[in-house]
Write a structure and sequence with these properties.
Shape: elongated
Low-confidence stretches: 153-159
Radius of gyration: 21 Å
Number of domains: 1
CATH class: Mainly Beta
Distance between the termini: 65 Å
Largest sheet: 7 strands, antiparallel
Mean pLDDT: 77
Structural class: mainly beta
Number of helices: 1
Helix content: 10-25%
CATH topology: Immunoglobulin-like
Number of strands: 13
C-alpha cells in the first residue's frame, strides 16, 4: 500500500513537470510611449511569460534611471495548466533630444538565449510643446530567437456613458 502511494506520487510529479516544461516561453518589451518631451519619463517593461532564466538588463545610455528595476511575478495553475510571469520595469528620463535607443535585454535559459532588439524613442525639446503630438504604446514580443512581432497600438481614450436609472 505504501509503495502504491509512493508510485502515485511520482507519477503525479512527472505529469506536473511535463506540463510545466511543455509550455513555450516568450519575452516581450513594452514602452508606454514612443515619443516624449525631454522633461517627461518613460516606463519600459520587460515581460517573461513561462520563461525562467538569468535576466540581463539593457544599457540605458542617453537616459537617466529614475526607478528600477521594479520586479513582479505571478504563478498560476488552472485546470492543470501552469503559467509563470515575471516582469522587470524601469522608469527613465531622457538626457538629450532626438532619436534615442534603449539597448537590448538578454534572457539566458538552459536551452536558449533570447535577445531583444533595441527600442527607438524620439525625444522632443520642451520648447516645442504642442498638444497635437500623439504618442503610441509599443509592445515587442519575442517567441523564439530572431522572431519579432510589433504589436503597436494607439492608446484609445475610453469614454463611459452614464445612464440615469
Amino acid at each position: 500500500m505504501k509503495e502504491l502511494r509512493l508510485m502515485c506520487f511520482f507519477v503525479i510529479c512527472i505529469c506536473f513537470l511535463t506540463i510545466v516544461s511543455g509550455q513555450k516561453g516568450s519575452l516581450s518589451v513594452k514602452v508606454d510611449k514612443d515619443t516624449l518631451y525631454q522633461d517627461e519619463v518613460i516606463k519600459v517593461e520587460f515581460l517573461l511569460d513561462n520563461l525562467s532564466g538569468n535576466f540581463i538588463a539593457p544599457d540605458f545610455n542617453g537616459f537617466r534611471l529614475v526607478s528600477g528595476p521594479n520586479t513582479s511575478s505571478s504563478f498560476s495553475m488552472i485546470n492543470g495548466v501552469v503559467t509563470q510571469k515575471k516582469a522587470y520595469s524601469y522608469v527613465l528620463m531622457p538626457e538629450a533630444t532626438g532619436d534615442q535607443q534603449i539597448g537590448e535585454a538578454i534572457v539566458s535559459t538552459d536551452e536558449d538565449k533570447l535577445i531583444t532588439d533595441p527600442v527607438s524613442v524620439y525625444v522632443l525639446s520642451t520648447d516645442k510643446l504642442s498638444p497635437s503630438s500623439k504618442s503610441r504604446q509599443r509592445v515587442y514580443k519575442y517567441d523564439t530567437p530572431g522572431m519579432t512581432k510589433d504589436t503597436s497600438t494607439k492608446a484609445p481614450i475610453k469614454k463611459r456613458v452614464l445612464k440615469k436609472i
